[in-house]
User: Fold SRPBCC family protein from Flavobacterium sedimenticola.
Amino acid sequence: MNLESPKVTVAQSAEYLYNALCDVKNYEKLMPENIAKFEVLGDDIFNFGLKGMPEIKLRLKEGVPHSQVNLAAASDKIPFTLTAHLDSVADNATSVHLIFEGEFNPMMAMMIKGPITKFIETLAQNMSKL
Assistant:
């Protein structure tokens, strides 16, 4: 299952956003208002939970400086990745596009498609909070 956020333009440089997204503590600022839990577990891993959803651990994976930041589920139970694509459009403006990719059975995919779509849209909209 592949889901994409709308592209948003943030009034920050690609370098600034890349560095901000490589610091897992900053993801708390991006979370939706209905967040029930957010906990930094290490330099490259955090745990979060939204009301009515199971908790998820995300680990920061390799990235491409100033253009891509990759996160992946820390558990093999629900394998997925979340990639932020950063495209500099000016010195202090960057286009951000989030892509969620996961392998789920059809029943699971049907159940989570709506909440995950809304979640990544919220993350993208909140990029300006960084």
Observations:
- The beta strands are 2-4, 8-10, 35-42, 45-50, 56-60, 68-73, 80-90, 93-102.
- The first strand starts at residue 2 and ends at 4.
- The chain has a mean pLDDT of 95.
